[in-house]
Amino acid sequence: MTDSGEIISPITDAFFLTGPTAGGKTKIGVKLANLIDAEVISLDSMAVYRMMDIGTAKPTELEREGVPHHLIDVCDPWEEYSLADYLKDAGRAADEIRARGKRVLFVGGTPLYLKGALCGIFEGPPADAEYRNELAAREAAEPGALHRLLAERAPDDAERLHPNDTRRIIRALEIFRARGRSITSFQTQFHAESGRTNRCRGAVLDWERPVLNTRIDRRVDQMMKDGFSDEVGRLLSLGKPLSKTALQGVGYAELAAVLRGEAEPDEAVERIKLRTRRFAKRQATWFRSLSGLTPIEMNEPVDPDAAAGLIADRFLNEE
RNA sequence: GGCGUCGUAGCCAAAUGGCUAAGGCAGUGGAUUGCAAAUCCACGAUUUACCGGUUCGAAUCCGGUCGACGCCU
Fold first, then answer.
1. Which nucleotide is nearest to A113 (CA to C1')?
2. Is A299 inside a domain boundary?
3. Which residue among A111, A130, A206, A212 is buried most deeply as judged by most CB within 10 Å?
4. Is there contact between A4 and strand B, defined as CB under 7 Å from any strand atom?
């Protein structure tokens, strides 16, 4: 049981800039990239989707200031994209950047992807939609059935997973079916905090919650002015439904409901702000749990050049 | 000024004499390894506007005070 099998390797020798949504990462990231001679790899689970620009606050060509950005617009909105896809793509992009003699700078706020990049994940079988649906239907028909099933097959998983945590229970059952062992026995990568050993440096923008919430509200209002709703309308007119993962992006489902006449615009905007605030809260929980990230205290107004200068200093001079 | 209705956690809201005052939303903390901008978990009223009374026992009944709303003058 000591064999963890193949893993998707952690990223080595890279720099990371992360922080909560609406915290100013994009701008500072570009400045920072220029200062340390790096190319940027977007660390964002939603910016990977083409045509989802405004709602994901994707940096425009202008905002990128000539710095190459990777892992943006790499799949279509009707396709599924996963953590494993991301880590494989990111590893490839990082190698290419290094081959060009540039540094690698990850910029973004998807904490799970960050953790995966820092520690690596075990190489498991891909999602099996059919089996997942089958299990989900079973759970719906008989609540608690899946957890009991897991308890028979992989007691260590069942002990770790809350009976209501259906998603992870399903993944655990999926692993057991494919590998005949508990998912717990494979998931060892996150236990060792490996950011250090991978020679990576990371900074996290740190905001007081009330100030950040104000910025979130302001940004959502700006997105609406920039035509977020029209963007959703274009996606709806594609004729193909958004994938499960793409549809999880804050605002897309809300505004689609408005366009279909099923919701009030004002309520949708409030809901978008609320969901964004809750997302920022969960990000904060991740950041607290990650060791080795240098916190950068942020205040309004933001001076991107100064912030980037400070971070570059920490990255390059404090070895 | 008179009459009526009402006043339960930040908000919405159950319980109308008897187990430790439902639940939802928001908020806070945590989890998080192929859906992660997703999902899951945990936490709130020694107390029902206030004062007094009836009762073995009151958020629930009675009186008063304050406040809100409605109607009348």
1. B36
2. yes
3. A212
4. no
- Mean pLDDT, consecutive 10-residue segments, chain A of 319 residues? 68 94 96 96 98 97 96 97 96 96 97 95 92 94 94 96 96 96 92 66 95 96 97 95 96 96 92 97 96 92 95 84
Protein A158 CA to nucleic acid B51 C1', in Å?
57
pTM above 0.90, yes or no: yes
Helix segments in chain A, DSSP class H: 25-36, 61-64, 83-99, 111-119, 129-141, 145-153, 155-160, 166-179, 209-225, 228-236, 252-259, 265-289, 304-317
| CATH number of the domain enclosing A167 | 1.10.20.140
In angstroms, how far is B23 C1' from A243 CA? 34
- State how far the Cα of A216 lies from the Cα of A186, in Å rounded to an integer: 38
CA to C1' distance (Å), from A156 to B24 = 35
| Together in a domain, A209 and A289 | yes
Are residue A52 and residue A138 in the same domain, yes or no? no
Do residues A19 and A112 both lie within one domain?
yes
Separation of alpha carbons A227 and A224, rounded Å: 5
Extract the tokens encoding A312.
Answer: 């570059």
How far in angstroms lies nucleotide B69's C1' from the CA of residue A263? 30
State the residue range of the domain holding A228: 7-124+190-317
The single-letter DSSP state of residue A127 is P
Total structural domains in chain A? 2
A306 and A229 housed in the same domain: yes
Closest nucleotide C1' to the C-alpha of A84: B34
A168-187 residues near strand B (Cβ < 7 Å)? 168, 170-171, 183, 187
ipTM above threshold 0.85: yes
Protein chain A, residues 284-303, with a C-beta closer than 7 Å to any atom of nucleic acid strand B:
284-286, 288-289
